[in-house]
Amino acid sequence: MIRINLLPHRDERRKASRRQLGMLAAGFAILGLVIAAAVHGVIAGYVSAQNERNEFLKAENAKLDKQIAEIRKLRDEIRALLSRKQIIETLQTDRSRTVDLLDQLVRQTPDGVYLKTVKQEGLKVNLTGYAQSNARVSAFMRNLQSSALVDNTQTSPQLVEIKASDVNKRRLSEFNMNFTIKRPVTEEDASKAGKAGAAKKG
């Protein structure tokens, strides 16, 4: 009877199986490393691209902030210029308004009425003077009321006081009255009125 010892053959088969398993494990490990490296590279690429976009957006935001600051500065300068323009227009209008006021006082003051003081504060005007009679004061008030310069919407003119007074041994009526002149029309008001008229026509 022939006896065959199979132990060495089995050992060889076990060693071969172990070598195959080791090679498979090493292959899977290498493949895993390759996949991990590839994924890491892709993610790193995405992160780098996103960082570049973020930096670009930051740079653009900084430019926009600078432009916004310049626009705000320009707006402030425009407001200041418009304010100065309005002040100059008001001064010019007030200057001509004073001339118009004096002209109207000369025209509307009847005979027998003498003005002592003329005070103007804004649109308010105060007059003091003397008249030969109370009737002359009433005539003066009616003349002022019919003047195109006087604003009659505020019950103007108003007699503050009238009293008898002796001036150079003459018996006169001393009066004090207030009235309001119309607000001057500036270029801005005229422009608004023109736009409003055009809108109504449209």
Show the helix and strand layout.
Elements lengths: L6 H102 L4 E9 L2 E8 L2 H12 L12 E10 L2 E11 L6 H15 L1
Antiparallel strand pairs: 1-2, 2-4, 3-4
Could you tell me how far the N terminus lies from the C terminus, measured between alpha carbons in angstroms? Answer: 128 Å
Measured as a percent range, the helix fraction is 55-70%
- Give the class from helix and strand content and strand pairing: alpha+beta
From the 3D structure, determine the CATH topology of the domain at 109-184. Answer: Gyrase A, domain 2
What CATH architecture label of the domain at 109-184 applies? Answer: 2-Layer Sandwich
- Rg is 50 Å
Q: Could you tell me the number of beta strands?
A: 4
Percentage of residues in strands: 15-25%
Number of helices: 3
- The CATH class of the domain at 109-184 is Alpha Beta
User: How many strands, which pairing sense, and closed or not: the largest β-sheet?
Assistant: 4 strands, antiparallel
Please describe the structure with a list of short key phrases separated by commas or semicolons.
202 residues; alpha+beta; Gyrase A, domain 2; four-stranded antiparallel sheet; 4 strands; 64% helix
Structural features, described:
With 202 residues, this protein is α+β, with helices and mostly antiparallel strands. The protein has helices spanning 7-108, 134-145, 187-201, and strands spanning 113-121, 124-131, 158-167, 170-180. Strands 1-2-4-3 form a four-stranded antiparallel sheet, with helices on one face. The longest helix is centred in the first third of the chain and has 102 residues, at 7-108. The radius of gyration is 50 Å and the shape is rod-shaped. The termini are far apart. The mean pLDDT is 83.
